[in-house]
Amino acid sequence: MSTDSRHTAIPVDETPVPETLTLTGTGVDGVEMPRIGLGTWPLRGAEARDAVEQALRIGYRHVDTAQNYGNEDAVGEGIAAAIHAGVLDRDQLFVTTKVNREHHGDARTVRAAVECRLRVLGLEHVDLVLVHWPNPDQDRYLETAWSLSELAEDGRIRAWGVSNFTPAHLDRLAGAGLRAPVDQIEVGPLRQSPAWQEGVRAHGAAITAYSPLGRADQDLGALEPVAAAAARTGRTPAQVVLRWHLQSGRAAVPKSVDPARQAQNLDVFSFALTAEEMAAIDALDTGEGPRRHPDEFGH
Ligand SMILES: NC(=O)c1ccc[n+]([C@@H]2O[C@H](COP(=O)([O-])OP(=O)(O)OC[C@H]3O[C@@H](n4cnc5c(N)ncnc54)[C@H](OP(=O)(O)O)[C@@H]3O)[C@@H](O)[C@H]2O)c1
């Protein structure tokens, strides 16, 4: 779908956004992560396998899974099916997974956890492994992050990162000389956590937005600035929201099982929002923060 030519008079920032974010941090020196990844929670079994294979056929080159989703086996089957069909080679794909609290610990514990993830995924290597939640109650996230950074340094994983880490958790890592390449946190139009994002950026970490469409538990088209930008650009409300993530500098992992919605969620690199449209979507933040806070929740 092309930009509506009647509106070309509106000043649009035409600077193209890059299709990858460069991850750099302790043990990680410039790994390219595709900006749009397929979210796979809460898919399982055949539905997960089919959604992944279909997404790879559509053109996705980043898949987001986790030990906790209980779907790494099915995600791996979807990847294998696409590779077997000649859709892509493994080295064209970026796979993110995440480790749970019971696998926080020293180098041996974390290495065993990563090897287990590879076995379940059926892969020889994984591109990005995240500490899924800091779980401050057990206070092992720092040594877990260290252990993952060592695996990256040794080339056993391409990159490591964290998820649901607040700036305070990142301060703790920084105090030990550790810089996380990426923090995957909840950011959607109504839950933007601007101070949290600023803190993550101050630590030099990239941000991946999870639940980037707000889990679609609100009608994105009912948000006036989103609807207005969708009407002007001839795009859907979800595309406008994903484009807002990209122009804000984030990666995003929208989940969809539907081929048309998967395709539109990936097709967000060829139009642009104006500075005014960006500001109007920024202003939708309710100040509510994430659904689950890492000081109270984790697995
Ligand atoms: N790190 C963490 O702690 C954490 C936590 C939560 C989630 N995540 C990751 O983030 C991913 C995405 O988050 P999420 O699943 O919570 O929420 P989301 O991606 O914001 O929203 C998913 C919902 O939006 C619908 N949808 C997708 N594309 C759409 C479109 N173009 N138009 C209209 N509706 C659309 C989907 O339905 P259909 O499938 O029917 O299209 C689904 O109901 C997860 O799958 C998971 O990989 C990570």
Evaluate the radius of gyration: 19 Å
Bound molecules: NADP nicotinamide-adenine-dinucleotide phosphate
Q: Could you spell the SSE succession in H and E letters?
A: EEEHEHEHEHEHEHEHHEHH
- How many β-strands, per DSSP? 10
Number of helices: 10
- Structural class comes to alpha/beta
Mean pLDDT across residues: 94
How much strand?
15-25%
Q: What's the architecture of the domain at 20-218 and 249-257, going by CATH?
A: Alpha-Beta Barrel
Instruction: Quote the distance from N terminus to C terminus.
Output: 41 Å
CATH topology of the domain at 20-218 and 249-257: TIM Barrel
Please give the CATH class of the domain at 20-218 and 249-257: Alpha Beta
Task: Walk across the major sheet and give the strand order.
Answer: 3-4-5-6-7-8-9-10
What does this structure look like?
It is built from ten helices and ten strands. The chain is globular. It has a domain of 208 residues: NADP-dependent oxidoreductase domain (TIM Barrel, Alpha-Beta Barrel). Helices cover 37% and strands 15% of the residues. The longest helix has 15 residues. Helix 1 crosses helix 2. Strands 3-4-5-6-7-8-9-10 form an eight-stranded parallel sheet. A two-stranded antiparallel sheet has the order 1-2. The N terminus is likely disordered. The chain has 299 residues and is of the alpha/beta class. The site of NADP nicotinamide-adenine-dinucleotide phosphate (NAP) has 26 residues, from helix 9.
Short description, anyone?
The protein is an alpha/beta fold. It has helices spanning 45-58, 72-84, 107-121, 141-153, 167-175, 194-202, 224-233, 237-247, 259-266, 275-282, and strands at residues 20-25, 28-34, 38-39, 62-64, 94-99, 128-131, 159-163, 182-186, 206-210, 251-252. The protein has an eight-stranded parallel β-sheet.
